[in-house]
Amino acid sequence: MAEYRLGEVESIFADIIWNNEPLSSRRLAELAEERLNWKRTTAYTILKRLCDRELFQNQDGMVTSLVSREEFYARRSEQFVEDTFQGSLPAFLAAFGSRKKLSDGEIDELQKVIDSMRR
Prior knowledge:
Strand order of the largest sheet: 1-3-2
Helix content: 55-70%
Number of domains: 2
Largest sheet: 3 strands, antiparallel
Strand content: 5-15%
CATH architecture of the largest domain: Orthogonal Bundle
Shape: elongated
CATH topology of the largest domain: Arc Repressor Mutant, subunit A
Number of strands: 3
Low-confidence stretches: none
CATH class of the largest domain: Mainly Alpha
Number of helices: 6
């Protein structure tokens, strides 16, 4: 099962993959060098780590995602609510809303999401 947590630099590296996939591991190393100033070996080490966590795969030198960016962040959000609010989305929204004033448009968007979940 994939671990839905990434460090700051791992997130940048994952975004490079998500934004360019499918791509060769060689091209990925080049992009990591350009964006993160990494050596090729560092890119391969982090790629292996993320593949071991079942987020990406490197088959025959071609890198693709096993988990989409949207799925990753949805799962990460679910895990945050579970860990922090005992899985209670209403408790999360109450905590969030107590610190940040929501605009009428944001409230309308949330209501649309809730309405769509009822169907």
